[in-house]
Amino acid sequence: MCGICGIFKFDSVPPDSKRIKNMTSLLSHRGPDGEGFFSDQNLAFGHRRLSIIDLSDKGKQPMHFGDKIITYNGEIYNYIEIRQKLVETGYSFQSETDTEVILKAYEEFGPSCLSLFNGMFSFAIYDKSKRELFCARDRFGIKPFYYSLNKERFVFASEIKPVFLGSEMKPEANNEVLMDFIVTNRTDHRKNTCFQNIFRLMPGHYLLVKDDGLVINEKWYDLRAKIKPQNFSSERLRKELKKSVDFRLRSDVEVGSCLSGGLDSSLLVSMMSKRVPDKENIKTFSAVYDNSWEKNEKIYVEEVCKSINVKNWQTVPDSKSLLQELEKLILHQEEPVTSASVFAGWEVMKLANDKQIKVLLDGQGADEIFAGYPYMVSAYYYELLMEGSYGKLSNELFSFFAEQKNSKLDGIKYFLFFFLTPKSIRRKLLKESILWISPDFYDKNYSDNFVESFFSVDSLNQFLLNHVDFKLAHLLRYEDKNSMAFSVEARVPFLDHNLVEYAFSLPSNYKTRNGITKLALRSSFKSLIPKKIIKRKDKVGFETPAHLWFRDKSFIKMLEDIINSESFQERECFESSEIKTLFNKFKDGDNSNLSIIWKVLYLELWHRIFIDKPDFIKC
After folding, report:
1. Between the N and C ends of the chain, which has fewer C-beta atoms within 10 Å?
2. Which pLDDT score is estimated for 542?
């Protein structure tokens, strides 16, 4: 895991060496173990290294092989198997790194080498003889790749800040993308970022950049094309997850795990314990809270640790720590985040760093492929309705109500609103829900095409595929930016492409049935996890008591200062009088507008940090 950056000029002027060094310096948190540079006529690479595989100097980057040079971020978990195939073809190796495997696989197979890789990655390979740059990103976008492009240069990096520095652009907000965030809670679902003229290489895509400025953008992985309906097999599911975890335990440094007390992370820790010789030395990290908060998961965390006998360190995020860290969190995340729950992950990664753990497993992705959120079952109800299975639909609705009666009943609410309510009514109700946004800003920047396409499905699996395409991306960005802020590599076993493809081959009733979510996981792994975890019906996942935090005197003071500030009053996106009304209601105990309070706070601070006075460009 590392930080990468580069400048590829289309004129005869070489990239400024000081500029590439400053870009690389902005990524130092992603790779504190070393740095490296490469320059050749109209190209320059920078690299920051976090040593995980082959800790020797042989793993330094940028790495060379013949006329090809690579700067790479990520892990190829099956590098040993690919390396063996390349050895049999006649290649020899000077290191034990996966970096060298990528470089020689590209030499042998060209862009088609990507289909060999099981892992998370973003990298750039420069071919000196052809004077072209090949850039690629993993199937699901676990590792980031941002870029800018104009007639003079192509600039890329693992984060957005170095791209601004390399492209010499002033940051400007992309209001259409910000509007997506405001209305739909999505930020990373398309090529455009929240900044004008800064783009992301989409998951499962590669770029080929020629020295004359020609750019070829190709999709190399299509999950939908890989899905072939299969019968459910607990043995097959166990096999796929076991293989995925085994791959992700490959490391020359110690591997720990996040542990929320939910099904996914508990399952990973349990599987780790079967594969690590000294399981009592497995280090797990959790965010917990005061027992007076009903969503505190501490009892579940402790149940797992007691059952499996692993070590656990706990952090207790609070309003004071959020207030202290908020601007730093915003600076690292770079684009908006949907709630304060991201801060819980931030504090967990900080704790892991404090305990000198460089690699953590995490359960990200399981909800999107196995239908972990209660609202997701709404698509299953619609599937049954379209099939004409009215008796089964009636039974499912009744079972969901019985199982989830103490929850928000989102599965039924989403079914009624997004699948059965006419579009014209939905559009009217939506506009009435965001009166805190300026009408002019709304009319100029909002399109409901995304919402309509997201819910235009005939089955649960189609709905979940849309989550992989349009929702998973921002969760993975939270994970990457949080972990790398503290030089920690986060690995996500549920996003092994073989496991994902198998999960999507299963019928919907193995994802949910009788009001129970993640049915395939619960039934296949019930012997590994405490019954208290298997039978959990609530869905939390690093949620925080933000409704309590925001009523802290210091937070109230900050929010009042923001709402009354000149910059806020002049911000084109806000309807300040409506926000003041909502804020007063919140102070009086109304929690229904908590998400709006968070978005207002985050958006205003985001504008101040990145748009009004982007001090990071001075680096």
Report:
1. C
2. 67
Structure tokens belonging to residue 215: 């750019």
Specify whether the CB–CB gap between 362 and 492 falls below 8 A: yes
Percent of the chain whose pLDDT exceeds 70? 98
Beginning with the edge strand found earlier in the chain, give each strand of the sheet holding 2-9 in spatial order: 35-40, 43-49, 2-9, 153-157, 146-149, 199-200
In angstroms, the CA 530 to CA 520 distance is 16
| pLDDT, position 541 | 60
Q: 299-332 as b/e, with b when 16 or more CB fall inside 10 Å? A: ebbbbbbebbebebbbbebbbebbeebbeebbbb
Terminal CA-CA length for the chain: 23
Nearest in space to 142 (alpha carbons), one of 366, 438, 398, 472: 472
- How far apart CA 166 and CA 16 sit, in angstroms, is 9
User: Counting beta carbons within 10 angstroms of the beta carbon of residue 569, is it exposed (0 to 12), middle (13 to 18) or buried (19 or more)?
Assistant: exposed
DSSP 350-374: HHHHHTT--EEE--TTHHHHHT-SG
Q: Is 105 exposed, middle or buried (0-12, 13-18, 19+ CB in 10 A)?
A: buried
Measured over the CA atoms of residue 98, residue 101, residue 107 and residue 108, the dihedral's sign is negative
Evaluate if residue 112 carries a pLDDT over 90.
yes
Residue-averaged pLDDT of the chain: 93
Query: Are the C-beta atoms of residues 186 and 336 closer than 8 Å to each other?
Result: no
What would the DSSP string read from start to end of 86-127? Answer: HHHHT---SSS-HHHHHHHHHHHHGGGGGGG--EEEEEEEEE
pLDDT at 619: 45
Q: How far is it, in rounded angstroms, from Cα 4 to Cα 23?
A: 9
- The tokens of 10 are what? 């289309």
Least confident span in 248-252, 381-385, 407-411: 407-411
CA distances from 551 to 176, 290, 556 (A): 31, 16, 6
Q: Residue 404 pLDDT > 80, yes or no? A: no
Q: What residues contact residue 48 under an 8 Å CB cut-off, 6+ apart?
A: 2, 3, 4, 24, 27, 28, 30, 31, 32, 34, 35
The rounded Cα 309 to chain-centroid distance in angstroms is 30
Report the alpha-carbon distance of residue 195 to residue 471 in Å, rounded: 19
Amino acid at 460: L
Distances 371 to 133, 245, 268, 365, 504 between C-alpha atoms, Å: 39, 20, 17, 10, 11
Output the six-digit token pair for 585: 């209601």
Torsion over CA of 254, 260, 263 and 266, rounded to 10 degrees? 30
Amino acid 211 reads D
What burial class does residue 391 get, using C-beta atoms within 10 Å of its C-beta: 0-12 exposed, 13-18 middle, 19+ buried? exposed
